[in-house]
User: Fold this.
Amino acid sequence: MNTPRYYVPARSHWPIFGAVAVFLTLFSMASIIHESSQGHVGLFSVAMAVVAGFLMLYMLFGWFTEVVNEGLRGLNSDQLKRSFRISMGWFIFSEVMFFAGFFGALFYARTFSVPWLGGEGAKGASGMLWDGFVAHWPLIKTPDMTQFQGPMGLIDAWGLPFINTVLLIASSFTLTISHHKLREKDKAKTLFWLGATLLLGVIFLIVQVAEYGHAIHELNLTLKSGIYGSTFYLLTGFHGAHVTLGAIMLLVMFGRVKNDHFTPDDHFGFEAAAWYWHFVDVVWLMLFTFVYVL
Assistant:
């Protein structure tokens, strides 16, 4: 009879640093939001946010460096490698639920709240707003146009957003080719296609900055532009942050491939970054469909 085996990780101080960093981040952000609502932001809250940021970076760099070194020394068992895959799967699932909450807010506003304001259904509130109100998404006119002026127009889905869609779809193909070349032990082509993926990601971010400039300065589309403006920046802004994180992950993988950290049969770090990048691409396709087109 085989005795079950359990993996017990070695002692580490990194979880303590991570817990403190997360606590300081949330506490400082809550303080900044509370103080900004009162018209001022204290120096202590800002300093605490900066300390939390540096502590988080220190923890991430130190912990991942330690994990990479353990892998290079051949200390990772098959059970530990499986745990890496399971953990990455749960992490991506948590990101799915993260964006599901934001898409849920968008769908609730479009499908329920706006029609109710137009008088539809048992919860219809027709006549409670202003004469001539039309329940149409996106809402261009806000209840108080003097303080919260709505956007003067909508972003053309087939302009910059479509370009960004093409860029991200292309980046998924280039990353897949790079992965295949890694399996074929072709280091030069692995680096070439991985570099192409990084370049496409950076161009995506540049185009998104240009789109934001156009939206803010020419269309008056801001966070104060009613529910449409707030949901637009909430979804696209967090997605842009995830693209940035994914690009950093791919940049790290570029360095690791260059330093021969991976083999055709053992390169989960590369695979994990690729999973994350493909997830970000799928989220953008949903954003393009439900935020820009429909």
Q: What stands out?
A: The CA atoms of residues 74 and 143 lie 64 Å apart.
